[in-house]
Amino acid sequence: MFYSKRRKVYLLKHWILICLLLWTTLSLYYVYTCSNFNLAQLKDLIPSEVSDQIAAILDAHYPGFDLHQANTTESSVYRKMFKNTDSVAGEILQIMKNYNLEERCELYFANVETENGVIVDPAHDFQYNKFDYVAWDEYLRESLRMLKEDPEENTEEEEEEDVLEEQIRVKFEHAKAKIVAEEQLLHDYLLHVKIFNKCYVDRDDGFIEKQKSLLQGINFNARVPYFKSRFARSKPTGLESKVFPWLTQKSPDYEPLLTGTTTKLIIEQNNFLHDFKSKLSGKGIVLTISDSHLDDCIRLIHLLRFLENTLPIQIIYTELSESSKHQIKQASTAEFHGYVQQNIILVNVTPAIDEHYLHKFDKFGNKILAVLFNSFEEVILLDADTVVTQTPLKFFQLRKYTKSGTLFYHDRNTAEYRPGHDIDMFLKLMNTNMDAQLFGLEKITDKTMTIPLFKHRISHVMESGLVVFNRARHFSQALIMANMYFFEPITDRIYGDKELFWLALSIMGDESFEFNAHPAAAIGQITPYEERVKGMESPPGTFISEEVCSNHPAHINDEDNHTLLWFNSGFKFCNQLDKVDLEEEFDRHDRFTRLATLEQFRAFWGGKLVIASAVVPPQNNAGGQDTDPTGTEPRESWRHMKQYCGGYTWCAYSSIGSGQKPDDRGLVIRYTARERLYFEKLGEIWMSSYDYST
C-alpha cells in the first residue's frame, strides 16, 4: 500500500513519539526507584517474634517509625549503603545497637558521591521553571497557546492535533521527571550538611546511648547476619571543604573602632566550624550594611546611644568605604547629647569566603554571613532601618527567648498564599524516619505543621528586622540557611531571608524556636470615621472595627499585650519619599484627608511617625468570618493601600466581619500621653541631623 507524503511524515512522527514515550517511561521508573527508597522493596529477614518486639519498642519511643516504610524522599546515600543487603531493617537495627557516632558518620560519608571533589555544590544549576509544576490540563493549554503565538514553532503543514498533544505529553512527563530528580538532589544536599553538622560541628551523640539502652534486651545477632565488617568505611579527609567549598577556613577580620587594631580568631584548619563555634562568647548586637545603608545605620547608632545600650555591636560587611567607616566611628564616639558611646567592631568577612562564591551571598544573603561570622554566643540581629524602642538587653530577658534560645516575630498576616507544590517541596527537605534512627535528626511535629505556611499556605510568616537567638544552641542554623539560599528552587519560593530562619531549624529537626504570639501591628493614628465612609453609598452609623494605616510593621510584646518592642522601615512616616509622586498621591484623597494642602502632605510624608495607637489584627486573616449586617466591615485583616508611599502603606483592622468569633477580633492599643512623649523623643533622636563627613 502506498501512502501520501504527508501520511508517511505523520507515521514517522508517530513512531518517534512512541519511542520517546517509552524512553520517558523508563526514565521515570529509574528516577522513581532512585528517589523513593522504600524499605519494603527489600526483603526483611528479621524473625517475626523479634520484629514484633522491636516494633513495640520503637512505637513507644519513636512514634511514626516503620521498619518497612521510609519517607518518599529518602536519601540516595542510604540506598547505596544498603543496596547489597538482604535485611535492611536488620542492619539498621545493628547500627542503632552497635555503632557509635563516629562510625555512623564515616559509614555515611564513605557512601557519598562527589562531583569535581565537591559534596555540596553551591554552583549547581537547577533547571528550575515554575511552569513545570502546573497540572496537565493547564500545561497542555498553555503549550498549545505558546505554539500558536511563536512563528518559529509553526510548520508549513499543520500538525495533526493528536500528534501535537503527544509531543506536549512527552515534554510534560520529562518536566515532572526532572522535578523529582532535582528535589531529590536538594534533599540530599541539605542532608549532607545536617549530618556533617551533627557529626563534626555539634558532635551530639546523646541519642545513641538511648538507642542502645532501648535495644539492649533484644538478641537478634544470631538470627541476622552480622554485617559490620561488610560496610565500606573511611576516615574523612578534608571533608569540611567538600561539604562547604565556599568556606576558606580562615577567620574574618575583626576591627574594634575604639582601638583600630585588626584581629583574627585563631582557628584550627580542617576543623574550622567546630573550633569557631567553641570560641563564641558573650551577648551582642549584629547588623550587616553596605555604603547604601549608611544613613540608616548612623540613625540606629544614635538611637542605641539614647537607649543606653551597653552591648557591643558587630557590623558585618563585604564592601565598605573608608568614608563610611569613619562616619560610623564618629556616630558611635563623638559627643551626642551626652549619651553613652557605643563599642562597635567592624567585621570584614571576605577572607572567610572563597571569592568564587562570594556573589552567592548578595542582597539578603549578607544577613546569613552576619549570623554565621559574628563572634557572639547570644545575638540580636538587626536591620539597619529597624527602630528599637526598648533597651536591647530586655530582649534576652523575654520568656520565650530564655525557654528556646530564639525569639522570632511574625510578619503582617496578609491573605497571600503559596501554591501547594511549594509546600510539598519544603516538606521533602525535612528529616525522615531513617535520619532520626541513624543520626538522631528529629522529624518535624505539629509545631512545624501548624505554622501558617504549612497549615494555611500563607506566604509571609516571619519578619526578620529583629531576630534574637543563642548561637551555641542553634549554631548549625546559619549553615543550613546558607545552603538553602544558594538554590533557586528554594529562594524563588520565599521573599529574601525572612522564612529561612525558622525553616532552617525545622529542616534540621530543631523545633526549639518560639514566635511572639501577635502578628505584626500597624502603628500610627486611628483613621477617623469621616475618612472610612468616603465613597460608601450607605455608610454605617459606627464601625465595629478600628483602622490604622501605616508603612511600618510593628511588634507588640505578647507578655503584656501592650509594649511596643520594635518596628521596621525607620522613623520617617514614608521611607520611600525619593520614589514617590507626591502630587499624585495627594490627589487620591482616600486617606490622610486632614492634610489640606500639598505642602502639608509633603511635610507629613517626610516627617517623623506619630505613634498614638496600634492595631494588632485578628489571627484569622481572611475568610470564614461572619458577615456583618451592614456589609461595611472589612473581610480581611489587612488592606493594601498601594496608592500611598510608593505601595508601602497597609491598613490594619481590629476585627473582621461581625467580630463575634475570638479569631476574628484583634487588639487595639491606645498609648498614654507619657508613652506618646517617649515615642516622640525616640523620633527626634532618629530624625536628628548630623554631619560626620569631615
Automatic annotation (TrEMBL):
Ranges that cross the membrane: 12-32
A Gene Ontology term for the protein's cellular component: Golgi membrane
Membrane disposition: Single-pass type II membrane protein
Keyword set, alphabetical order: Glycoprotein, Glycosyltransferase, Golgi apparatus, Membrane, Signal-anchor, Transferase, Transmembrane, Transmembrane helix
BP term (GO), one: protein O-linked glycosylation
Stretch forming the signal peptide: none
Main location (coarse class): Golgi
Coiled coil regions in record: none
Pathway: Protein modification; protein glycosylation
InterPro entries named in the record: Alpha_mannosyltransferase, Nucleotide-diphossugar_trans
Subcellular location: Golgi apparatus membrane
PANTHER family cross-referenced by the UniProt entry: ALPHA-1,3-MANNOSYLTRANSFERASE MNN1-RELATED
Protein family (similarity comment): Belongs to the MNN1/MNT family.
Name the UniProt record assigns to this protein: Putative alpha-1,3-mannosyltransferase MNN14
Gene: MNN14_1
